[in-house]
Amino acid sequence: MEGGYPFPELIWLRPVHMTLGISLVFVLLTVVFQKVRLFNLFSVTVISMLCSVVSAVTLYASGYIVDEYNLGGDGVSFFMFLANLGLSVLNMMIYWGRNSILTYETVNPKK
């Protein structure tokens, strides 16, 4: 029990996962409720891929830190990584789905 922390888990990288998750939720809400197109396909894809890669690198680095200091792994960070990955995929799917519907309606208007 060093430093007053009773559980030997590495939780110092959880705020990184939380920040990435919050930014992905913001992008998701913006894509769903946008009236004016604020994001294009490139920006949604880059934001989603960047958040996924940073989240994966953070999880991978925490594995090295845990191994080096002989600590216990953090299961919550793994589930946060999975949530970030799911939100990234969901952002791209919703953006592509909304734009394919809008493109179809502009090419084939209802009479």
3D architecture notes:
With 111 residues, the chain is mostly helical. It is built from three helices and no strands. Helix content is 74%, strand content 0%. The longest helix has 33 residues, at 75-107. The protein starts with 13 loop residues before the first helix and ends with a helix.
Oligomer: single chain
Q: Beta-strand percentage?
A: under 5%
Counted by DSSP, the helix tally is 3
| Fraction of residues in H or I helices | over 70%
By DSSP, the count of extended strands is 0
Taking all residues together, what is the mean pLDDT?
87
Order of helices and strands: HHH
Rg over C-alpha atoms, rounded to the nearest angstrom: 19 Å
Structural class based on helices, strands and sheet pairing: mainly alpha
Report low-confidence residues grouped into runs of 5 or more: none
Distance, first to last CA: 72 Å
Biggest beta-sheet profile: none
Q: Short description, anyone?
A:
The chain is an all-alpha fold. Helix content is 74%, strand content 0%.
Give keywords.
111 residues, mainly alpha, 3 helices, 74% helix
Furnish the topology, listing elements before pairings.
Elements: H1 14-33, H2 41-69, H3 75-107
